[in-house]
Amino acid sequence: MIERRKFIRIPRSTKISYKISNSPKIKSSVTRNISQGGISFLADEFIPKGTILKLEFALEEFTYDDFAKVIWVMEEAAGNQYEVGAEFMTIPKVA
Q1: Strands 15-20 and 63-75: what pairing?
Q2: Which H or E element spans position 18?
Q3: Phi and psi, residue 42, nearest 5°
Q4: Which CATH number is 10-88's, of 3.30.540.10, 3.30.565.40, 2.40.10.220, 1.10.510.10?
Q5: CA 7 → CA 15, 18, 38, 60, distances in Å?
Q6: Which residues contact 27 (CB under 8 A, 6 or more apart)?
Q7: Are 56 and 43 a contacting pair, CB within 8 Å?
Q8: For residues 8-27, b (16+ Cβ closer than 10 Å) or e, as one string?
Q9: pLDDT score, position 70
Q10: How far is residue 74 from each of residues 41, 60, 68, measured CA to CA in Å?
């Protein structure tokens, strides 16, 4: 298998809030992994590829409060959650 990612993914579980760009509703979830280029997290709703999200989360190394674009979505085995992969639209600056 050829690795096509530009950045290494780090398994990391932290609280995240997200909002679909045209919706007033803010949702909370947890991350699965994070890289300098993007993030994956769990959602209790299907979010289509190409959707723009407003994300907010904090780590020791940096905080992110900006937009990301959904690149992929996979339904979890239980069928009531989705894993969402989103690409940051601005690169977080690491402290």
Answers
A1: unpaired
A2: strand 15-20
A3: -90, 140
A4: 2.40.10.220
A5: 21, 22, 9, 19
A6: 17, 18, 19, 43, 44, 45
A7: no
A8: ebeeeeeebebbbeeeeeee
A9: 97
A10: 11, 28, 17
pLDDT, position 82: 95
Give the integer Cα–Cα distance in Å for 25 and 11. 27
- pLDDT tens track of the chain, all 95 residues? 455 656 667 777 889 999 998 889 999 999 999 888 899 999 999 999 999 999 999 888 778 889 999 999 999 877 789 999 999 998 766 65
